[in-house]
Amino acid sequence: MTGNTVKRAFKYRFYPTDAQAAELSRTFGCVRLVYNRALAARTSAWFTEQRRINYNQASAALTEWKKDPDLAFLNEISSVPLQQGLRHLQTAFRNFFDQRARYPRFKSRKKSKASAEYSRSGFKYRQGQLTLAKMSEPLDIVWSRPLPEGAVPSTVTVSQDSAGRWHVSILCEETIDPHTPAESAVGVDAGIASLVTLSTGEKVSNPRHERRDRKRLARAQRSLARKQKAGANRDKARVKAARVYARITDRRKDFLHKLTTRLVRENQVVVIEDLTVRNMVKNGKLARAISDASWAELRTMLEYKCAWYGRELVTVDRFFPSSKLCSACGALHSTLALNVREWTCGCGITHDRDVNAAINIKAAGLAVSACGAGMRPQRESSRTGRSVSKQEGHGATREEAQASNHR
Which residues lie closer than 8 Å to 270 by C-beta, 6 or more apart? Predict the structure, then answer.
């Protein structure tokens, strides 16, 4: 079995010296400034002259900006992150013109992520030490896991999150060996009370990470709201609130990674529902619980892990009545109240609502896999470079509302 060669990012914490932190902060600011000036220039050229500016023209403009005495500080940092910022803007416009994204927006110092990307000419990686351009010392990285043997980093992205933590993301190629073929398949019914219910009858409880830290988060937010704007105490309170959010996010991702890795390792085919989460969160009563469950992230992880390890991920149409269909005789009930957790079919079989839905999802997915029905359009995965399955819905259905209420 030949392995799949994929581009994979490895993210690590690091602790910069005061000089490194100052240099990176200046770099973040310059990247943001160049991005915003280029965006303003491209927007003005289009609306005033109906003229498009490409990357080469924006790069030439950057050279002229550096000659301006008021922008002389742009020469003090590495030019690589500035050029990468212009490339990102070019990609944003390409996605907009291809109707894959909204019009590019200006970066904010407070709301946008502080980051800078270095290509190979902007860093040096030798013997496990990473040194960025314009720096004399390597970064103090906590190598929580090793890079693949013989890996050659292609890009390095340095960032600082709202909680004040520094991260470095190292992109390199890795050959991933597929898992040994398995004979089992599983249907996954996402929910709230149980995060997922499997067609085997197993229910994985929902950790509810946000609810567990809700009191701590509320205290931090109240403290932030009382602080005077534009003050040092407000910045400290903002960081404290951000740390609570970061704790919730990290624990949620850790749980989802372990769950999806297990599903992919144990099953050859994984079948899920195609839920339009962005529409479901419009339900004010369930939005918080749905967001905490993070179904979209669960699906994303399953997509790229199945592609990496030679598994098949099948999505079942969101209109499929998984909850109301008897998995034993195939009878379809016209109505099924949202508060009904168990129901008995006319054939005499009593069903657990979630388990029955998971069994029906698995059966529908296997049928799709066997006949090759085109139930889901393709999209390009940024992690694998290969097509993975995803179907985007345009409105929440009653079946999704049922799923939201009981899950």
Answer: 185, 186, 188, 263, 264, 302, 306, 311, 312, 313, 314
pLDDT value at position 369? 79
Which residue type, as a one-letter code, is found at position 363? A
Residue 300: how many other CB atoms lie within 10 Å: 17
Overall CATH class of domain 185-207+249-406: alpha beta
Q: For residue 250, indicate whether it is catalytic.
A: no
Look up residue 240 and give its two tokens: 């404290």
Catalytic one of 117, 274, 354, 400: 354
Picking from 66, 103, 62, 111, the residue whose alpha carbon sits closest to that of residue 85 is 62
Annotated catalytic residue, options 117, 189, 274, 399: 189
Amino acid residing at 187: G
- Which residue has better confidence, 211 or 376? 211
Q: What's the average model confidence in pLDDT over 20-33?
A: 97
- Check if the beta carbon of residue 309 is closer than 8 Å to that of residue 293: no
Q: Residue 395, Cβ neighbours under 10 Å: how many?
A: 9
Tell me how far CA of residue 240 lies from CA of 214, 300, 329, in angstroms.
14, 29, 55
Give the CA-trace dihedral at 248, 254, 257, 261, to 10 degrees.
Answer: -150
Report pLDDT digits (tens) over 202-243: 999 999 999 889 999 999 999 999 998 888 999 999 999 999
Which of 23, 117, 273, 274 is catalytic? The answer is 273
202 catalytic per annotation: no
Helices within 134-198 (DSSP H only): none
Q: Give the gyration radius of the chain's Cα atoms.
A: 25
Please give the angle made by the CA atoms of 315, 320 and 324, to the nearest 5 degrees: 130
Q: Where do the structural domains in the chain lie, given as residue ranges?
A: 4-176, 185-207+249-406
DSSP-based helix, strand, coil % in the chain, nearest 5: 45, 20, 35
| Among the listed residues 350, 362, 353, 330, the one whose alpha carbon sits nearest the alpha carbon of residue 402 | 353
Rounded CA-CA distance 372/375 in Å is 9
Indicate the burial class of 12 (C-beta count within 10 angstroms; 0-12, 13-18, 19 or more).
middle
Determine phi and psi for 81, rounding to 5 degrees. Answer: -60, -30
Position 307: which residue type? A
Closest CA to 375 of 360, 389, 361: 389
Residue 137 has a CB neighbour count (10 Å cut-off) of 12
Based on the residue annotation, tell me whether 274 is a catalytic residue of this protein. no
The structure tokens listed for 255 are 């749980």
